[in-house]
Amino acid sequence: MIDGNGARDFFAATLYEAIPQAFVALDAESRFTYVNAKAGVILDREPASLLGRSVWDEFPDAHKRPFANAYEQVKATNMPVVADGCFAPWECECTSRLYPCDGGVLVVFAEGVSLDQRKTHGVELSRYLRAVLDTTPECIKVIGRDGTLLDMNVAGLTLIEAPSFEAIAGSSVYPVVVERDRDAMRRAIEAACDGERSNLEFEIVTFGGKRCRMESRIGPLRDESGVIIAALCMTRDVTQVRANEERLRESEARFRRLVERAPLGSFLNDADGNTVYCNPRLATIFGSPAEAIVAGAWRESVHPADRDRLLAACLAFYRGDDEEMHYDYRIVRPDGATRDLVVEQVRLRARDGITEGFIGIIDDVTEHRVLEEQLRQSQKLEAVGRLAGGVAHDFNNLLTVIANYGQFLKQELEPGTRGRADLEELLGATRRAASLTRQLLTFGRKQPSSPKLLAPNDVIIGVEDMLRRLIGEHIALVTDLEPDVGRVLVDPGQLEQILVNLAVNARDAMPAGGLLTIETAAVYLTQADILQPSTGGSIPALVGSPGDHVVLRVSDNGLGMDDETQRRVFEPFFTTKPLGHGTGLGLATIYGIVAQAGGRLCLRSAHGEGTTVEVYLPRKCAEVMEHALPEAPNVDVRHGTETVLVAEDEAAVRESVRRILERAGYHVIEARHGADALLLWRERRDEIALVLTDLVMPEMRGAELAMTLRETAPDTRIVFMSGYASDAARATMAPDDVLLAKPFDAESLLRVVRDALDGVAQRS
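RE: above sequence
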């Protein structure tokens, strides 16, 4: 009967013998402790005869074989090792696997081929191996230590474009290799002959003259006894592979340059929404290093008012199935600047449809939105200008009638009477209404002006006393005028208006008193200067052109303006003054005057620190000054005897003009509109000395009437009247035509008529 231990031993022995692999067990002293039947067949020994014997005693030559090296490695590392090669002492060629086991070594042999079998089937095996080598697509060659070619398969011959192996057998392999790679090839072959393995990439020139890039795995070739007899090279042509890799690198480089030099910021997020890359432009937009943005610092830059909205939108996009997302938000950069950003983000999917990440672009639209706001503001101002022009035409006609008929009444009332005093008030209100209309038109750049070459210093000195009375004794006025500052081309009345408006604003900003300073200086503005921000407002900045300028600088140390006031300060009708104490057209009028003069306007202010307004006007050179218009002579405007054709569609205006002219001795022919005037002129052209016509009339406009008259009589003298002259209407006038702006009084009308009849040059 078999006990428990015996049963286990029997079961183990039965199991070991049933295993199809041949194996032996060696103890710590290298003695056989078990040899299964399969191993006995391979080793050509009875298993029982090996038990207890040393492997080195039984097979002395094993000390010289790879088996001995593998055995020592297993003992030293306690790790499995594979040993390849021919184990001649065991009369077999096989692969053995050695495993550590109970202080000893377990050796498992793969299926082997005995020496007798090799001898019997040697010829067939050689043919078989040659057939395999010659059908292998990879180049295989055997090279001696000195670089002599010993063997090469068909694929290798094809690769180097050799005519046959016999033609190159025994020759050196180095001449085929390009010169710069020959030393590396020589070192690799010699190392292989010393038992080392290496990978080498090199270039060759084939026998056909073609340059190819090669990649070789080079190692030792051993004989049946394990002795290294040559170097074995397995080579493949990687020319196309490297060309494709180079094209890929170039494509990636171009793409990287495109991304990194793009004017838009770009970023790449992983599937969880974490930023893994951003280009330099994005770092510039955020004002932080790219590394900080990738680390997540961009989240802290998001404007607090936009943070929750942005987070919710991004989470919804990342968790959803939408392919793209468009959104905008603001950031606050480390330097404190707030920027407006617009973002477009798209989903990146793998071939299986799974989200791999997200790619996006960011555009800084801060300046664009500022320009949009300026455009909207400009359109608003243009609308105000058009409205002012439309109202001014009719309103100035009415003011002309009121003013002139008031003058008629004034001449009939005795001074000192109640009626005369009431009439004076009425005429004063008329003048104030006319001034308001002029301010509207000036802001809209529609007001006719009479620019003259003048010295700004002279104008300032001329109004200095008036300004002192205007600002009051509690404010000190100091002027600092640079001598010989030069001349500018501007309407003198408009320049005075600039000074008055700025002085009034300064006075109101210093209710408890202060200092008002007026300075002039000659300056040169560069292109960089005119591109600097000129005002804090959203109104389009007046930048002017580079060149010599005269700057008129008006400063006060009053209350100053906050940011909101500065943003709106040039808007028409905007005022910080109490109701009834300001029209809101002061700075708007200045804006229009400076714009007409082609100048630059700058405003600097801080709450509690006062305000400085700088008006830059182009400085005119001596050549321009030589062509300045001569002053009109001081002529008597009271009388005349010539015949004047008056074309005016507003009956009351036409009647008042007729009465003024007839009182001065002129003969007047009245026309209701342009077509009527043309008919009357054709009938009585010989007696008509001057045509006085409104610019805007039904039937035929004044400019069209003038053009028709001059086609037959080029020397016809014409004076235009207008309460509002649009740019299109003024463009139809001749350069030297005279334009009399409504409302006008009798003296202005008579002077213009007299000058036109006497041929005195004027400019509208």
